[in-house]
Amino acid sequence: MILIKYLKHTGNPLSKTYTYGKQTIDADDIAAVVEALKSDWLTVGPRVIKFETDLTNRFGAKAAVAVANGTAGLHLIGLALGWKPGDLILTTANTFLASANCALYCGADADFVDIDEVSYNICPKKLEVKLKSLKQAGKKVTAVIAVDFAGHPCDWSTLSKLSKEYGFDLIDDACHAMGAKFEGEEICSGKFVKAVNLSFHPVKTMTTGEGGAILSNDLEFIKKVKVLRTHGMTKDIDVMERNDGPWYYEMQTLGYNYRITDFQCALGSSQLAKLDRFNEKRRAIAKYYDENLDKSLMTLPKVASNVEHAYHLYPVLLNLEKFNVGKKEIFKALQDVGLNLQVHYYPVPLQPYYRKKYGFQESDFPVAYSFYQREISMPVYPLLENEDLVEICNRFHATLRKFLK
Ligand SMILES: Cc1ncc(COP(=O)(O)O)c(C=O)c1O
Asked: Regarding the domain delimited by 2-22+275-402, which CATH topology (the fold level of the hierarchy) does it fall under?
């Protein structure tokens, strides 16, 4: 029913190609950006502050800082928490590079935990085993960055308990999951964690082009993030060592230029107002796939009963034993019929850089590796019409069936 409400026919789906994700830009988004471009402020202006206020109002966190991109956000979180050489940051094996790289940017070490077979998120049981063995070896974990993969919230209650028991900072890399809920609570409210990190890259559930944000209920932490976002500069007379006049600023810590522009934030506020509608559409698309994809050929994602999924991705796991070719051949054949999909993710610890640095191998992350071997992300974005979904499923099934043993 929801599909019928939101999916109107435009164009001929037969001639279309499809990607796994795509932005939705309406006339009001364009008007908001044009208005910002005509204003006096292109950056460090009122639209940045408005976007930050809109984010806190929408998600319920006490404060938000908008930044250049989601990677910069993770780096700033690490800097503000004082990560340094000797610190150990754990994250999931199944994520984008940035969730681990941020530890190394700060001089800390990254380590990885395998995923849960059902949610595809960091496995709390395996995390606990790792925390115990590290503790026995006299090593402390500084922070855990959990990622709500595909938009399915992590098990935040178990992760929060572990964070209290083992004394690490818990970070939510919620780049896939804006608007998702865990036990009725917005995950971006920051209720479960020290900080939430968002990305507004065009394939995400709302966009500013490039962009990101950090949300937190710890106002001292947010203050540090704001200073670090602009070179470590301050004009706060209460903390400056001297005050030569109105022009004067001080750099008391080493920061970066991780700012976002006003025209990006104008787009952000406009998109944020539509996030619920976008997510409703994403859930309707997922429901269509749940009901129409052939479960004899693939395993479909499962949703825990205590969460609301944001469906940045709809990952299916091919039943490879049914086919007479491997995923590479199937993937190429899908491209030949206009399905330009993607795989999320080759496990980060198996990337050449991390293998060389820490000696990781496939057997260290058996679930994430097997997931990678079978996974393909189906198209999910609000512009998909009912006819598109029919067409996508037809092409997907016809291609897979060509290769049945
Ligand atoms: C889980 C996750 N974390 C961090 C990032 C980094 O975000 P950005 O591309 O905005 O730097 C991404 C983006 O793909 C992501 O998927």
From this structure: Aspartate Aminotransferase, domain 1 (3.90.1150)
Q: Rounded to the nearest whole angstrom, what is the distance from the C-alpha of residue 293 to the centroid of ligand 1?
A: 28
CA-CA distance, 216 to 403, in Å (whole number)? 49
Q: Is 101 in the pocket of ligand 1 (CB under 6 A)?
A: no
CA 380 to centroid of ligand 1, rounded, Å: 17
- Among 290, 269, 271, CA closest to 279: 271
Q: What is the crossing angle of helices 70-80 and 98-105, to 10°?
A: 40
Q: Is the pTM of this model over 0.90?
A: yes
Architecture of domain 27-272: 3-Layer(aba) Sandwich (3.40)
**Ligand 1 atom with minimal separation from the 72 CA:** 11
Residues contacting 116, CB < 8 A, separation 6+: 122, 123, 124, 125, 155, 367
Q: How far is the CA of 35 from the centre of ligand 1 (A)?
A: 28
Classify residue 319 by burial, with Cβ atoms within 10 Å: 0-12, 13-18, 19+. Answer: middle
Tokens of 381: 């974005």
Break the chain into its structural domains and give their ranges.
2-22+275-402, 27-272
pLDDT digits (tens, 9 = 90+) for 290-334: 999 999 999 999 999 999 999 999 999 999 999 999 999 999 999
- Is there an atom of ligand 1 within 6 Å of 173 CB? yes
Residue indicated by tokens 């030949």: 336
- Ligand 1 pocket, mutate which of 77, 89, 175 (most atoms under 8 A from CB): 175
The alpha carbon of 94 and the centre of ligand 1 are apart by a number of angstroms equal to 12
Index of the ligand 1 atom closest to the CA of residue 211: 10
**359: pLDDT strictly greater than 90:** yes
Q: Indicate if ligand 1 lies below 6 Å from the C-beta of 98.
A: yes
